[in-house]
Amino acid sequence: MRKEQSRPYLRNVLTLFNKTKGMRVITTAANNAVYLNKRRSHL
Questions:
Q1: Residue-wise burial string across 8-38, b where 16 or more C-beta atoms lie within 10 A, e elsewhere
Q2: How far apart are the C-alpha atoms of 9 and 29, rounded to whole Å?
Q3: Which domain of life is it from (predicted)?
Q4: 2 closest CA partner among 10, 28, 15, 33
Q5: How far is CA 10 from the centre of its chain?
């Protein structure tokens, strides 16, 4: 039994999440990376 078949709702949630907030998550991750790089350069 495949995981995809046993947990189809998980795929649906991930797809919905990617459609609605994918760009926001990517932007937040990019901002966090820049912020961490700035802090690392200060240390």
A1: eeeeeeeeeeeeeeeeeeeeeeeeeeeeeee
A2: 25
A3: Bacteria
A4: 10
A5: 15
Residue 12 binned pLDDT confidence (cut-offs 50, 70, 90): confident
Q: What is the pLDDT of residue 35?
A: 92
What is the spatial distance between Cα 25 and Cα 19, in angstroms, rounded to a whole number? Answer: 11
Verdict on whether the full-model pTM lies above 0.85: no
Q: Which H, E and C letters describe the chain, residue by residue?
A: CCHHHHCHHHHHHHHHHHHHHHHHHHHHHHHHHHHHHHHHHHC
Contact 28, 21 (CB under 8 A): no
